[in-house]
Request: fold
Amino acid sequence: MTAISAASGTHLIDDGPLTRYHRRLIAACSGGPFLDGYLLSIVGVALTGASAELRLDSVQLGLAGAASLVGLFLGSLALGPITDRIGRKMMYTVDLLAMVIGSLACLFISNGVQLILLRLVVGLAVGADYPIATALLTEWIPKKRRGAIIGWLSTIWLVGAIVAYLVGFLLSSTFGQGSWRWMLASGALFGAIVMLLRFGAHESPRWLVAKGRLEEARQALSKALERPVSLEDVHALVATDEPETKANFVALLKAPFLKRTLFCGLTWMCIALPQFALFTYGPIILAQFGLGHGGAEETLGQIVLNLGFLIGSLPALRWVETRGRRPLMIWTFVAAAVFLLPLGLWPEGPGWFVMVFFFLFTLASGAGTILVFIYPNELFPTSIRASAVGLATAISRIGAAIGTYMVPLSLSGIGTGPTMLIGVGLTVLGLVISIAWAEETRNKSLASLTTKILTTVKG
Reply:
């Protein structure tokens, strides 16, 4: 491959413009995270009614909240490598169908075991979607816009969570807590809409080239870039310094990628665990602080907190490109720890105090949320990108699932204040890991980030 063709190949995607196809792809890939946020959050409202009707004890309540995270762990772990093997596009339909069917089946739940099993199925489908949508979008987007656009997937996840609580609030305030089945089933409607959005998406040209399907890559690029693309241009997409790695976790668990794998998974866990505690048990936690008594009031408070996550993510979409990934990650953990600490020290504080510091915490945490998809997609080569996203997701969900299961036990066992202090400890852990391992990937080509780590190891 000549230097001229390599430069041309880089220009095709990394240095190219955003076209109409890119915008359609962004909308299509955003549908999955929106649905993920919705499905993982609607249970937070539904559990109040489900717990009363199905007579769930603390163990069952914890399992019902954590089941989707366990499923997400298993789904991302198993289906990330499959996505690397058979392609990003092909995996779209199966996971969406599972989301729709699993949601509709919730209309017929009659006991706690069925609730736990169906939440497990939904989690499996959500886990499949993370590697699919993020890897496909990463491999199509120019480098100058890549961080903000991949970060947008986390923001739209938060939009889905907010919509879930709005739907839950409307149903619970109109029809009472007995509407919890319809809350869980409502995800099927959004799933059908997302399936329609994904028609017309092309396979990743980087993945096609890696599989030797050059003519398919050329056709996809020509349609997406709205100009003729030659086979020489397509050949230039093959980065000669990118490793030929099988689509499995072996490469991710040894040098030179192990540190990056641990960094992505552990920091994601430290961000996700306090967030999922709020998403899943927000109304219950707010009630523990004395805000409301098991009705729609706590749900309304949860909507306000979810808006904090969303608002915090919006300026971060700009900062991630102007100030960089590393400083955003570090300062997110600093601010989150500072704002969560008062809730641990003074859990008996007045309602305004609780809501103010919870809201400030959500602003800080929301800013860091956009990085959880960016880092694993940028730090690994095409051949194992979806596997890396899947493994990072799995690592994060091990802790998040355990933590979510423990929240109701912790609240009833050691109290609200100590539970909040555990959250502070997690954010401090994330800060330490970020200071030690966070890299700066802003405005760099995907191939150059692979070259960097390989060169460092060889040196």
About this structure: Residues 1-10 have pLDDT under 50 and may be disordered. Residues 20-54 form the longest helix (35 residues).
